[in-house]
Write a structure and sequence with these properties.
Elements lengths: L1 H38 L4 E7 L3 E2 L9 E15 L2 E15 L5 E6 L4
Antiparallel strand pairs: 1-3, 2-3, 3-4, 4-5
């Protein structure tokens, strides 16, 4: 009887943890595709860190989730007739719908 009660208490937590893990991985893939396909085409992208995915409820909006992401883009700059690769850090907050499609992205500074 104790085992059944224990399983009934633990099972919802395990299912919720797996859902959160899957949602986070899907959001990471979607964000990566959005950055490399729409915002920074043909530039080298290196992820630094992803924040946790957070539910968002806004009136009259399709936004269901948000996630903060830090990354670097390699840009080519010319100095004295030499091309130099420069790593430029960025921070964005991504807003996604229920299906984890990126609806909008905003750049911000943490300073």
């Amino acid at each position: 009887m104790r085992i059944i009660l224990f399983l009934l208490l633990v099972f919802p937590a395990v299912v919720n943890a797996q859902f959160n893990r899957s949602a986070t991985e899907l959001a990471k893939e979607t964000i990566r595709e959005y950055l490399t396909g729409k915002i920074f085409k043909d530039q080298s992208y290196r992820p630094i860190s992803y924040g946790e995915i957070k539910p968002r409820k806004q009136k009259d909006s399709d936004i269901a989730w948000s996630m903060i992401h830090k990354f670097e883009i390699t840009e080519i700059q010319t100095q004295a007739d030499k091309k130099i690769n420069v790593q430029k850090p960025h921070q964005f907050i991504f807003f996604m719908d229920e299906k984890m499609k990126v609806l909008k992205a905003e750049s911000f500074d943490s300073d």
